[in-house]
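Support request from a user on the community tier.

User writes: "When I paste my structure tokens into the form, the page sometimes reloads and wipes my input. The last time it worked, I copied everything first. Here is what I submitted, just in case something in the input itself triggers the reload:"
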């Protein structure tokens, strides 16, 4: 019994040191990143936003982000954990498609980009694809009474290249740039 107790205390102390050291190393490495591990903070109209966390935009004059399984709550990130054959997920996606078609009636016959009807794994992905942004251009231009070519140019300028995946567009940054158009 004494041997087991001694072994468990030693193992617990060792694990605390290892886990604590790992945590400190990761934290320390984060402090050397451009934003010192604080995420991308953007101040716009006196408010602070995090550029790496999705924001909920519902106005017809704004580009909309990907759907969120956690209602854009960064405190509880996560997906729905429903597989592609789950009837509940299929029903939710069909409702999202219907909503998109109502919001974008000019685009009824267009193919809806998958990122506009499916949530990301975290539910907080701040980016959409170029196709996702292009799908929304007509609605945004019509609501803001702006020429589509002007909005299209803004979308093109907002494309962020990625080393490890497809190009993407940060919805928050795109909407902020859109708000600055006179």
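"...and here is what came back when it finally went through:"
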């Amino acid at each position: 019994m004494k041997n087991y107790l001694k072994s468990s205390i030693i193992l617990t102390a060792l694990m605390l040191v290892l886990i604590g050291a790992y945590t400190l190393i990761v934290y320390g490495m984060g402090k050397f990143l451009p934003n010192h591990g604080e995420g991308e903070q953007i101040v716009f109209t006196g408010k602070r936003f995090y550029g790496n966390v999705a924001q909920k935009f519902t106005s017809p004059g704004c580009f909309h982000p990907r759907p969120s399984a956690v209602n854009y709550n960064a405190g509880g990130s996560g997906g729905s954990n429903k597989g592609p054959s789950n009837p509940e997920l299929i029903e939710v996606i069909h409702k999202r498609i219907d909503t998109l078609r109502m919001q974008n009636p000019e685009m009824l016959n267009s193919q809806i980009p998958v990122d506009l009807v499916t949530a990301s794994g975290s539910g907080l992905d701040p980016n959409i694809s170029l196709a996702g942004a292009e799908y929304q251009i007509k609605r945004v231009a019509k609501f803001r009474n702006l020429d589509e070519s002007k909005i299209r140019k803004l979308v093109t300028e907002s494309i962020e290249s990625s080393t490890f995946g497809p190009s993407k567009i940060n919805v928050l940054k795109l909407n902020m740039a859109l708000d600055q158009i006179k």
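Agent notes: The reload is a front-end session timeout and is unrelated to the input. The longest helix spans residues 2-30. The chain is about 45% helix and 10% strand. Escalated to web team.
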